[in-house]
Amino acid sequence: MPVIVNKHELTDEEVEREIDHHRDAPNPLQRATTAVVLRHVLLDEAAQLGIKGQDDEAVVAALLDHAVPDTQPERSECERHYAAHPQNFTVGELVEASHILYQVTANVSLDALRQRAEKTLAEVLANPGLFAERARTQSNCPSGEVGGSLGQLSRGDTVPEFEKIVFAMPANSIFPRLLESRFGLHIVHVARRIEGQLLPFGKVETQIAGALSAARREAAWRQYMQLLVGRAHIEGIQLEGADSPLVQ
Questions:
Q1: HSE toward the beta carbon, residue 38, CA cutoff 13 A
Q2: CA 137 to CA 132: how far, in whole Å?
Q3: Cα–Cα distance measured from residue 146 to residue 144, given in angstroms and rounded to the nearest whole number
Q4: 63 with 45: CB under 8 angstroms?
Q5: What are the structural domains of the chain?
Q6: pLDDT tens digits along 69-81
Q7: 107 Cβ contact list (under 8 Å, min separation 6)
Q8: What's the predicted TM-score (pTM) here?
Q9: Tens of pLDDT along 142-181?
């Protein structure tokens, strides 16, 4: 079934040129086709508005600049963001952590895995001296060979769900519940922590303003793209990610 965007039928050549940008996607063909569809939607809108450029990329950029002008947040908004997220502006913060990982795989019963992990958690909470031995014999992470040690971690070194817990733990403590991440179930121990230094607002104000402006603009782009897609005549495809104007 052909894919048609505002009376334009997509060609195989268009999709083939685009597909190299999406090789890492779960469905490269779907993502490439979606990207081409969205590009045509944007280019058609630009043509109606008389917006021109040296190439398609320049036309799309000019359209988005026209539709969603860049606006800088107020200083008070930046100050509120700074106060609400001090961890993002703290440097030198470190934790020395270890874990025992029970990896979730397709062939493992999650209930059985959880029961095993809960049993070990109860054991190490009652006797922390068992932690390294249990890591060596039970952890599905290579760190098990060294008693579960992950060494010193900085923010950004681990996945967010793991980082959130580990950096909130006091030194010389075991998290009293299983920590669940995309990798599985973790029993976590923090041996030591080094408190970082909060950077003064003046040193990060420009960084905060840029981040808030970019986030606001991306949200506005998504709304604008949804509006254009809703107005367009599209046949032959169920769009995935059609709310994103970031066509590559």
A1: 27
A2: 9
A3: 5
A4: yes
A5: 4-73+203-235 (no CATH), 93-195 (3.10.50.40)
A6: 888 999 999 999 9
A7: none
A8: 0.63
A9: 999 999 999 999 999 999 999 999 999 999 999 999 999 9
